[in-house]
């Protein structure tokens, strides 16, 4: 992404602004289904071939994911669908779905367990999808796996570490490249500490750090409760007076800036579009173009065009 893509001259930037802009330009995005205006906003401000992760929502048919995937690929982005293990009633169902995705040009997926309390079929966890051989058989070359810097509501840190290591090992043994996509959180310190722990353990894989894109405070707290990151969200509440931005929502500037300024290897932001994909795309494009003002030690504001 660059200023010419956005139709504006590049502003003069300080070294911190340059790091923030460069980091934001590497952002990927999370979508469910496309709302009116989403594709236009992506095309206007997000670089072609940017990965757009397509969620798997239990309440929605898989056809919605297929349709979103096809539409994103048609306008030049790289759809990376979630494969929710517990949602498939049989091996044949998963294979059929993967076939439809790869027919649409998909070569990377994110393997997750999924939100169903009880599996619909033989798959209980993401590692079983990775070990099945179905991804490779359908020409998938890379798999994303989930990371939890803020912990997990049902699993201990030790269990999370073991599961992450097992999925990495299974993917490597079956010839798949691997990257990590984290749950969204609200504590840059917790994320940096978690990445430091990964690196200390010899895990130098690319990491896409989940950030909650611009959204209302009530929306963020609702999603935080669902996803088990309520504790760090409560820290956000104490700073809401500082986090209001041009877009009239809570923006992830106090998360993005410390990550951009840290030396943590191959790390990029991953925007969850709780306030809408178009809003997340426009905010990120403005940051990547350098339209920001550093307003305090750990954040910034987006300036009008």
Structural class: alpha/beta
**CATH class categorisation:** Alpha Beta
Order of helices and strands: HHEHEHEHEHHEHEHEHHHEHEE
Shape: globular
Q: How many strands? A: 10
How does this model look, in words?
- By secondary structure, this protein is α/β, with parallel strands linked by helices.
- It has one domain (3-287): TIM Barrel, CATH 3.20.20.
- Helix content is 42%, strand content 17%.
Which structural traits does this protein have?
305 residues, TIM Barrel, 8-stranded parallel β-barrel, 10 strands, two-stranded antiparallel ribbon, 13 helices
Task: Give a summary of the structure in a few sentences.
This protein is of the alpha/beta class. The protein has 13 helices and 10 strands. It has a single domain (3-287), classed as Alpha-Beta Barrel (TIM Barrel), CATH 3.20.20.
Protein topology:
Layout: H1 3-6, H2 15-24, E1 28-31, H3 38-45, E2 51-54, H4 62-74, E3 78-84, H5 91-103, E4 108-112, H6 126-131, H7 134-137, E5 142-147, H8 157-173, E6 177-182, H9 188-200, E7 207-212, H10 217-227, H11 230-237, H12 253-261, E8 267-272, H13 277-288, E9 292-296, E10 299-302
Helix pairs in contact: 2-12, 2-13, 3-13, 9-12, 10-11
């Amino acid at each position: 992404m660059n200023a010419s893509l956005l139709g504006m001259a590049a502003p003069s930037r300080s070294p911190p602004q340059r790091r923030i802009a460069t980091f934001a330009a590497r952002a990927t995005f999370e979508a469910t289904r496309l709302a009116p205006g989403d594709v236009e906003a992506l095309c206007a401000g997000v670089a072609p071939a940017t990965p757009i992760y397509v969620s798997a929502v239990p309440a929605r048919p898989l056809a919605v994911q297929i349709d979103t995937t096809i539409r994103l690929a048609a306008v030049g982005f790289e759809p990376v669908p979630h494969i929710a293990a517990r949602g498939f009633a049989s091996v044949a169902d998963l294979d059929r779905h993967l076939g439809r995705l790869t027919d649409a040009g998909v070569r990377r997926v994110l393997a997750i367990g999924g939100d169903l309390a009880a599996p619909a079929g033989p798959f209980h966890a993401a590692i079983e999808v990775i070990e099945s051989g179905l991804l490779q058989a359908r020409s998938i070359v890379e798999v994303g796996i989930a990371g939890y810097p803020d912990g997990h509501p049902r699993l201990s840190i030790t269990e999370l570490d073991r599961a992450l290591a097992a999925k990495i090992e299974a993917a490597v043994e079956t010839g798949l490249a691997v990257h990590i996509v984290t749950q969204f959180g609200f504590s840059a310190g917790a994320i940096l500490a978690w990445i430091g722990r990964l690196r200390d353990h010899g895990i130098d894989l690319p990491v896409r750090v989940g950030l909650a894109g611009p959204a209302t405070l009530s929306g963020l707290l609702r999603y935080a409760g669902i996803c088990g990151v309520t504790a760090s969200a409560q820290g956000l509440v104490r700073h809401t007076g500082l986090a209001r931005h041009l877009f009239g929502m809570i923006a992830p500037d106090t998360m993005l800036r410390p990550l951009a300024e840290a030396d943590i290897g191959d790390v990029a932001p991953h925007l969850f579009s709780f306030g809408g994909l178009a809003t997340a795309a426009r905010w990120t494009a403005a940051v990547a173009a350098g339209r920001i003002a550093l307003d305090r030690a750990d954040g910034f504001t987006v300036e009008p065009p």
